[in-house]
Amino acid sequence: FVYVKKENLRYVANVFPHKGYIWNYGAIPQGSLTWEDPHHQDSDTGCVGDNDPIDICDIGNKVCSRGEIIKVKVLGTLALIDEGETDWKVIVINTEDPEAGEFHNIDDVRRLKPGYLEATVDWFRRYKVPDGKPENQFAFNGEFKDRDFAIDTVKSTHEFWKALISKQTSAGELNCMNTGVSNSPFRCSSEEAESVVKSVSPLDFLVHLISSYIYI
């Protein structure tokens, strides 16, 4: 799998015994968008945010297509410390999954999918090692927090995003241009957004979209 970060192609290496991602990996889309504020030191992890939306690991059986939007049930979260920054990983399951009714909290994942949580910690600990970087660390000694804690994390990072998109906090190099947030000073017309898209090549726009977080 390959994606773009900091205007460069970035590959997700295989880390034995894992091959690529071991879940559907994504983020929370617009409407409930989140942002890990790099100016805010998290009271639980002791580290600032990583300047990204929080990440989602869907443990359902369906392999989703790139860009697919699904409705999920929150089960818990893992507090990754990635190069000194807080990088929450929220464990969820697709509500359309045949087994979704059996999962209500993180302990259900441990009970019904033995070894999956341990594999998740192992994956996140070592996935940057092939790039010559050290192993990642975790808050809470790598223990997963439960559903209620995860939902509180989603809510708090959503508040950070609302401050960002309403210009109540510094956006830094992030481009917060959007067409759908009515009270945002970054809001533009559909015509302006279309002109941005047409002004660059498809690959350049993909790089810009991912690295700058244009919320359309």
Describe the structure.
The chain is α+β, with helices and mostly antiparallel strands and 216 residues long. It has helices spanning 106-112, 116-126, 147-165, 190-198, 202-212; strands at residues 2-5, 8-11, 24-27, 55-58, 72-82, 85-94, 137-138. The strands form 2 sheets. It has a 5-stranded mixed beta sheet with strand order 3-4-6-5-7, with helices on both faces. Strands 1-2 form a two-stranded antiparallel sheet. The protein starts with a strand and ends with a helix.
Gist of the model:
This protein is of the alpha+beta class and 216 residues long. The chain is built from five helices and seven strands, in the order ββββββααβααα. Strands 3-4-6-5-7 form a five-stranded mixed sheet, sandwiched between helices.
List keywords for this structure.
216 residues; alpha+beta; 5-stranded mixed sheet; two-stranded antiparallel sheet; 5 helices; globular; disordered C terminus; inorganic diphosphate phosphatase activity; hydrolase; metal-binding
